[in-house]
């Protein structure tokens, strides 16, 4: 998705005086197809946000499931609005120093110039509107990942503040380092669709928040790791399948055209990695825990998808199977590791997006000769370190100013009732029972 | 979606003797892309019907949730069949008096003429099959909106009758006034994808039915507005996201081609209005009710989408934010207003589709200089008055003939058991408890 | 989907020395569109697997719903991996004896030859990657259908073994008879998108397994057919709508190009048959059972879709309504029939996919003059007999080796807890109650 870089290279649509002239040119059908695919891909990435809402809600307790949904709706909508206002032109600032730039408010284009709006001032096989909407759908992803990590005990307003700044400022800055033509792209770093720039950013921002926030009550009581299961595996399943579905647009659209060779290749590597991730995580849970845990199998799919994202267009199909399989093993081990470290990540998002995001980016350096492992390592470390430090500082500041954690009473009663006055399933007796039981214990 | 109007204008595909000749012409790739996009858009509008079923079912009591689904499945299937039989040729009758016309039974084309079936007798950048299926997916929408309004106390057979006539007769008549080239299009009225012609039609038909039907038992007891919460906020969330996803096809497909400039522009305005609607409704509920109610936030998304639908291709991105935001405020106030007026609309569909549909159509007159606010007002009032009066008369007739409301016993026990012999969730103790509790009270 | 046959016919993209030369040729935009549609269709077929998981899970007891999901995730992922490894080249072996062939391991193409990877060595309007991923998404379908039939009492490992062999060996063999250019295609058999080759294969493999496995405890106790309702009609509804949505890609993509005339025609026949199936099954249940059962209406949609699949591109719209309507009647009668025969098919998959698959294939012979009913009969009988016998033998072998059925205790407690250690909805009291109640009875 290196737009700034490609802008300089592609210019075959330039030089038309009128829209009519451009539309009559031989290259116009190709432009139409490329543009249409980017729009469809934007729609697919959009549906990933339903995937995130479903999987994160399904994997948390029923008494906190409305809260998860509310946070995700908020951050998606606020994310797209702030991306239109400032984020897009931070991420793609044009000529800049390689570390931080800002092209100005809005999406940076004169809408009254129809020719330029198409291509000639822009140089890509899509309109500026298509480019913006595709990128905007990506933007909220990082914050949505954090939403899963902090669920069950975060103050709503504190998350809203943190998420808005993450999506409108922190995410576009590291994005500009690579996709905006900044110092990482100069260095030869490669992250096709964002194993690091999207997923690891979300995972390590989430880790920072979890370290400040602490674990949910009862998670690590009496020296043991207590399992607090999610409330609906079918809902989580719907979420994971929709994420996979949307990932065909996330990776496939990152080709930034409908180029038949590359887009179809990316579909294949993406699917193979997801499959290998699932099978590997199934085997791993069987070997390690002697169980065939369903949520872990679902996380295996996501692990494979996150892993292949950095190199979906350059990694061979066989290597895609390997990358996905290793991600499927890694995610099980990482979730176990963070549990032992008493890092409470209710939905496993730090492992899925953080750890497997790093793995996928490094894998490009391992499996593709033209990329350097060392450069991949530098790029990944730079992005996650920057994100972790800024997120830690920001969330600490919010903690100091207004607090980040709900009271024990609110946590016990559930955030749905306390923060929203809603119950996810008001007619099902079990939920009241659950809330009461938890309250009794604490 | 002014097909009849455009038919006269576009004719570049005319004049081919054989399909082969047409397929060898330079314009054929563009025709392929345009046609493919309309088909994909038809698929997206189809998925909106799952969205409607999910959101309406989720926002009603568990004991009535199968009934909602059944009604929506019926009306979607009956709607497409009757649209093929009569509706398509009422909506697009060809030359007619501007108020009512009928081109004949079926979809009005000689399937044995392959050249004409493509374009030359038709004059658009799509086949007649694509045109039909895209329009057919729209047709059931209005009746599906009514399904939400009347839920919990309507007799199934009465709704089936009413819905079938609405979708096969009333909806296509007002549709023909504008999209079929009738008197409203002559007048200069503008409703791009149907804020009025689809959504307000559904909302005001629903209002007519609710006024005849009366409120659910217990809704306005002892002079208070009693909240009867929906049974599953996650299910409603799935529905709202799918509606938004499908709306990219609803609005994007209404361009009636894959024209890069317009389709991508429509994606942007549609998304911005949805986001602004959500944020505005969140703020409004916080200010008015001191709560962050999740279903209201979801309705804010829908309000923004309904609002932008009339002008998605002509309203500026900034104005789209304003249109969506105002819709997000309006929907909260309208739901409160109808509650005070003792109009019982369980899912808020009259406010979302009726009120915000009117708002969106008027907004075109406010924000786009070339359209007259007065004409927009006339057009909107004409369509909703006609729809309301005919719906009121028709539902009154059905009430007189066979009744429209279930008995108190059936209402208390729930329509799922009474009308279908089904329980949505037979293994969850809560539902029996709910039914029992409601029965005790009445 | 007769790839081998068309390979010989279409060769207009052959003969380019470099990719650049091909991309500069006049046929390239058409190639791009065709290829893009196949990729999008592959995505739509993918989402059918979420449809299957949702409908099968929703129509089974809550205590077995995780197990259904786990089986479907496994078979989808293992199916795609084995299809890449062996299945694709069994199904499309190139020149072969018409009964069985094997082109070699992998997907049979030199990825380092970019020109060939596009078309010239391949001869279709899509890349080999697009062809593979579209076919791979189909492959797991048959085994997923079996998953529904055997639910509630099958040993997980036994199903995994059976499903893997079905998807990697049995399905591609009968597929090669027709779509690989084998003896059935030579005979003049027609099965456009797989009423027989996909759906009846799944249905009759499922029948073989059910006969070996026996009924669930309590299903046919005391000489009566006891209804064991599914646990979530909303979840099943989500599944059925997603299946319909995906079917536009299943049938529409089977055109193997974005040919405007055929793809749009297929969308129309597919939708009309689904609608007619639903309305007919609603009427049938009302006449036969005096009830308006929702799950049966949902199965009516699927019945219509399965029925039209064999002839979606050649059957007239009016005949599509007839084919769908008859399928909608058939599915109700077949489910009743199998219940009386004490064949326990919890989700009705044998009736939906097996019986309606056969009906749809025969319907091509009845409604389309150029196809022989007798040939259709021979083809269908050959495929289902072969599949049934091999499946019966294989599942018997597995029964002999490791057993196929869980113990009575495991069945009573539910497979979710016993096989996975998961509960689908751990906070809802009803489920524990259900498990306890079932355990008490047995």
From TrEMBL, chains A, B, C:
Gene3D superfamilies linked to this entry: Ammonium transporter AmtB like domains
Any single biological process term in GO: ammonium homeostasis
One CC-aspect GO term: plasma membrane
Entry annotated with the keyword Transport: yes
Annotated localization: Cell membrane; Membrane
Keyword Transmembrane among record annotations: yes
A GO MF term: ammonium channel activity
Membrane topology: Multi-pass membrane protein
Family annotation (NCBIfam families): amt
Protein name from the UniProt record: Ammonium transporter
Transmembrane residue ranges: 36-53, 73-92, 132-150, 157-177, 197-215, 227-250, 262-284, 296-312, 318-338, 350-368, 374-395
Family indicated by similarity: Belongs to the ammonia transporter channel (TC 1.A.11.2) family.
Organism encoding this protein: Rhodohalobacter mucosus
Annotated Ammonium transporter AmtB-like domain residues: 36-425
UniProt keyword list: Ammonia transport, Membrane, Transmembrane, Transmembrane helix, Transport
Family annotation (InterPro entries): Ammonium/urea_transptr, Ammonium_transpt, Ammonium_transpt_CS, NH4_transpt_AmtB-like_dom
């Amino acid at each position: 998705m290196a737009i700034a870089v490609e802008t300089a290279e592609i210019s075959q649509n330039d030089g038309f005086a009128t829209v009519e002239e451009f539309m009559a040119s031989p290259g116009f059908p190709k432009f139409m197809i490329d543009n249409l695919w980017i729009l469809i891909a934007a729609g697919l990435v959009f549906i990933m946000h339903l995937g995130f809402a479903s999987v994160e809600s399904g994997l948390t307790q029923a008494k906190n499931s409305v809260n998860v949904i509310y946070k995700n709706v908020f951050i998606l909508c606020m994310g797209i609005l702030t991306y239109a206002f400032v984020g897009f032109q931070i991420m793609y600032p044009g000529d800049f120093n390689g570390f931080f730039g800002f092209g100005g408010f809005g999406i940076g284009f004169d809408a009254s110039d129809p020719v330029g709006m198409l291509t000639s001032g822009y140089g890509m096989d899509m309109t500026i509107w298509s480019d913006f909407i595709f990128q905007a759908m990506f933007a909220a992803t990082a914050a949505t990942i954090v939403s899963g990590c902090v669920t069950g005990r975060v103050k709503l307003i504190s998350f809203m503040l943190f998420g808005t700044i993450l999506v409108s400022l922190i995410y576009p800055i590291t994005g500009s380092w690579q996709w905006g033509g900044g110092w990482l792209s100069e260095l030869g770093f490669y992250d096709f669709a964002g194993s690091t720039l999207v997923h690891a950013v979300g995972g390590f921002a989430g880790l920072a928040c979890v370290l400040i926030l602490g674990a949910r009550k009862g998670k690590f009581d009496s020296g043991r790791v207590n399992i607090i299961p999610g409330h609906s595996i079918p809902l989580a399943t719907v979420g994971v399948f929709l994420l996979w579905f949307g990932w065909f647009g996330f990776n496939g659209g990152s080709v930034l055209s409908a180029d038949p060779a590359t887009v179809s290749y990316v579909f294949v590597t993406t699917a193979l990695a997801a499959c290998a991730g699932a099978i590997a995580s199934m085997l791993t849970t069987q070997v390690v825990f002697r169980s065939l845990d369903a949520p872990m199998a679902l996380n295996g799919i996501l692990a494979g998808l996150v892993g292949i994202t950095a190199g979906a267009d350059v990694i061979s199909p066989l290597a895609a199977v390997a990358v996905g399989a290793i991600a499927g093993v890694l995610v099980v081990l990482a979730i176990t590791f963070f549990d032992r470290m008493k890092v409470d990540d209710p939905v496993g998002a730090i492992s899925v997006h953080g750890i497997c995001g790093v793995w996928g980016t490094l894998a490009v350096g391992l499996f593709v000769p033209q990329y350097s492992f060392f450069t991949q390592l530098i790029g990944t470390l730079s992005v996650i370190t920057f994100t972790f430090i800024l997120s830690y500082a920001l969330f600490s500041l919010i903690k100091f100013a207004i607090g980040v954690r709900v009271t024990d009473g609110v946590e016990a009663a559930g955030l749905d009732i306390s923060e929203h006055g809603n119950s996810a399933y008001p007619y099902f007796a079990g939920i009241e029972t659950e809330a009461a039981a938890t309250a009794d214990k604490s």
